[in-house]
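To start, an entry.
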Amino acid sequence: MLHHLHPGSLLRTQVALLSSIRASTASRSNCRNRPIDLVFIIDSSRSVRPAEFEKAKEFLQDMVDSLEIGSDATRVGLVNYASTVQIEFLLKTYSAKSALRQALARVEPLASGTMTGMAIKTAMEKAFTAEAGARTSSMNIAKVAIIVTDGRPQDKVEDVAAAARASGIEIYAVGVDRADMTSLRLMASHPHDDHVFYVETYGVIEKLTSKFRETLCGKDDDNGSAEIPVNGGIDDYGKGLDGRQDGYGINNENDEKGNNGLDACAQGHNCQHICVNNGNSYNCKCRLGYVLNPDKKTCSLSDACTQGHDCQHICVSNGDSYTCKCRVGYVLNADEKTCSRSDLCTLGHDCQHICVNSDDSYICKCRVGYVLNADQKTCSRSPTCPQGHDCQHICINTDDSYICKCHLGYVLNADGKTCSRSDPCAHGHDCQHICENNEDTYICKCRLGYVLNADQKTCSRSPTCAQGHDCQHICVTSGDSYLCKCREGYVLNADLKTCSRSDACAQGHDCQHICVSSDNSYICRCREGYVLNVDQKTCSRLDTCDQGHDCQHICVKNRDSYLCKCHEGYVLNTDQKTCSQELRSEITQDACMCEAQIVFQKKVLLTIQELSRKLDELSDKVNLIEGRQQQY
């Protein structure tokens, strides 16, 4: 409510207000925001109509116009999402404002669902990275994400948004129309009054540009630095976004209270909505439908809906009252409270053939004989016939209908639908003996006693063996009869049909000691005390002493064993292994006698050794004769 003002005071107030407006205009036209890495995350799901998406893009272009764009200034990226997520361009892609605007104009909606959580995760992991053009934390460049959505997320947003904020990303959430306020608050940074915005339609979203300009554009101070004010919040759908009711509403009654004619509000204030002069100071008030926050400066939208309502679907606070709205796919009835399902298809669609209402949206279908293309809108002729045709074998599409055909080897019956097997043999063949139908062709066969030649047509008399035989192993045709043979290693039995394994050793061998038959051949082995030589035929005596012995002095081979002997001057003990020094009981002074005894003893020892050797040779010969007798 405007109060009556003193004419002089009114003039001063108008001058001050005009100066404030000029300063504000100059500030907007020369916005110098501090450099930030800014990524827009835009909802382009099916609920966002094409015209609404164009409005959203205009909002983004207005935002870009209000910022200082460049590789050393603000960098901008764009994440487009619906049921899938698509990074339209990265922070490093564009450094010129004109190119950035053109890129925004080229963005197309994705349609389908609303996967907001997945979009935030993609932005955090791929858009705010050094590879994408984000600057390092050491440069103290703020990372800002602005999410614009008109619906309720179909996935979880709380945890992924918290992770994004924890990584240093400041998140602003802009809700339009049916946007879920709870989800917006779960996504946005704190305080929510500064980071959560709501507009009723995309038609007024551009009015948020000034609010973001205030947030992102700082004013130069004496040191040339810029500060970001924190006076955002949920606005009254474009009504007086400059903080005053309709841009005015100044109470200047302080002139009558000794304020030296000065308007405290005109001198500068930090009221979010309305400044009211009060003596030498001022008070802040809020516009209709808002309540003053505890800080006595900012305002929050009062929610009449929470006080109770009778809306069937959606209650929308409107000042100190509310209005009812319906969910997508429904229209408000005449009572302005209840809703009825709307026919979305009649409201306009982009289906090439058939539009079918589906819950809060619609889906496209195709006429019989067509299939839906990947764009889920247009149709292409189906390569196969529609379900429900009555062709027994093959259905082939024609322009407006279809025809039936049969598999190879069948002919179409008079009804034009069913098929009967064709008889290729009846239509002519080149088989010498017998023609036999085989699916869609035929094969030739021969009469008994004949075999089919390589040309698969003519026949030749088959060998006698082919007629059947009783040979156990091998049948060999011989004239008009046959004879039986055995495989290698076998001999034909007396019945001239069956076979028995042959004794290869009995056929002759070259083993020195023992021959052992093995399958179709034989192997040689040696008698005990002998080992097989490398030629695998002859044998050599095994040196039992080399195999290990327990003689203290000397080991002497003895056929298949060994015996122990002692060095000269020693005698073998009773264990036949160890030796003890020989004790001589006779002492002689006769050198000749002593020498003679020594020579005699040596000769006796040599004689014994020679006899032992001859006995061994004789034993070997006896063993050899015995071995040969065993073989025969």
